[in-house]
């Protein structure tokens, strides 16, 4: 499973490593997604098949092989249109390919995309027939498996990650958010729990409308929010309970709220939110109850944020996998065509040579008869 390993403040200056790409989570938040390394091995392959491949590989010299393993962007996209039914997946793959052309990031190692849009393979793989074999005939078969394994809408052939219905729904339960949480580096976790005050206020106002708070209770909840955001002095407010806001710290000037980056604390906040996702009328007659409602909204806001992050991470990982396996397929086809052409020419030359030898033999016999 892909992980989020860093926060990307500036894509131009960030030192992306192998198999890392920027992932836009929100308008002002970009993280670095890292794909785990593939293991290329011929340990479990058929020796006869490998031996046959090495012979075919040997038909081409290094220069011919390099040319054979160069695929144009147009060819990749053509193969994409015939291989992937989901229009959302196709657009995502095209977007990622174009992104890698422009950025030059080594995100598909050992595949390489040049600044001119040419897809090829790294030099270390190019010189090793066993690695090429493992790449082509192990990983090259996985595109169809990946596409077939993805459920699709009968109506529009979209996959769940690019379906509008999926984006409207919200997975529930502790397991969902903790699974996402485990995929985040500490830096990413710190960023997730740094809450924009205005964004939290939007969540709060939606919550107040959904649960039909009366004007008096609504006023108290908004007052409790203002205390949390640092706009009002809590201790001077009647009924304020400081203990309820333990683990939370506001930066009024920066307009954000720091949530304690502790798994149990986050679980407690999200646990507050889960029962409140259904509708129904609610009240907050006292300030401490209003504070409780604000904490519930904070849990909902964190839950929604992790949900969006989970969707984007899964969608981008799927996009990466499709592009990688698609690229391997395109390279394999280029290799097979080049070998067939070379062997075809060799066989033709052999036939011509045999005909020439037969003609020379006939000519020799004629001369001997004379």
From TrEMBL:
<dbReference type="InterPro" id="IPR026073">
    <property type="entry name" value="GGNBP2"/>
</dbReference>
<protein>
    <recommendedName>
        <fullName>Gametogenetin-binding protein 2</fullName>
    </recommendedName>
</protein>
């Amino acid at each position: 499973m892909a992980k989020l390993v860093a926060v990307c403040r500036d894509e131009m200056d960030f030192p992306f490593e192998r198999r890392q790409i920027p992932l836009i989570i929100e308008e002002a938040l970009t993280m670095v997604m890292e794909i785990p390394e593939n293991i290329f091995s011929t340990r479990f392959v058929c020796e006869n098949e490998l031996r046959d491949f090495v012979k075919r590989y040997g038909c081409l010299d290094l220069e011919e092989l390099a040319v054979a393993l160069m695929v144009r962007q147009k060819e990749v996209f053509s193969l994409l249109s015939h291989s992937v039914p989901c229009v959302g997946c196709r657009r995502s793959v095209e977007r990622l390919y174009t992104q890698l052309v422009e950025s030059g990031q080594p995100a598909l190692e050992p595949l390489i995309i040049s600044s001119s849009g040419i897809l090829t393979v790294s030099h270390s793989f190019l010189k090793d027939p066993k690695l090429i074999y493992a790449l082509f005939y192990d990983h090259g078969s996985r595109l169809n498996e990946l596409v077939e394994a993805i459920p699709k809408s009968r109506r529009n052939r979209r996959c769940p990650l690019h379906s509008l219905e999926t984006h409207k729904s919200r997975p529930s339960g502790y397991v969902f958010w903790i699974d996402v949480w485990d995929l985040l580096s500490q830096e990413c976790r710190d960023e997730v729990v740094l809450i924009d005050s205005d964004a939290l206020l939007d969540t709060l106002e939606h919550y107040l409308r959904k649960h039909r708070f009366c004007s008096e209770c609504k006023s108290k909840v908004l007052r409790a929010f203002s205390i949390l955001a640092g706009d009002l002095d809590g201790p001077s407010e009647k009924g304020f309970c400081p203990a309820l806001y333990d683990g939370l710290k506001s930066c009024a000037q920066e307009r954000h709220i720091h949530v304690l980056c502790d798994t149990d604390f986050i679980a407690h906040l999200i646990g507050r939110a889960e029962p409140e996702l259904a509708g129904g009328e609610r009240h907050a007659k006292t300030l401490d109850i209003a504070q409780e409602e604000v904490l519930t909204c904070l849990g909902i806001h964190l839950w929604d944020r992790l949900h969006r992050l989970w969707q984007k991470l899964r969608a981008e990982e799927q996009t990466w996998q499709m592009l990688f396996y698609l690229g391997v397929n395109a390279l394999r086809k280029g290799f097979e065509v080049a070998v067939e052409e070379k062997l075809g020419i060799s066989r033709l030359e052999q036939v011509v040579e045999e005909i020439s030898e037969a003609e020379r033999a006939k000519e020799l016999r004629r001369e001997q008869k004379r």
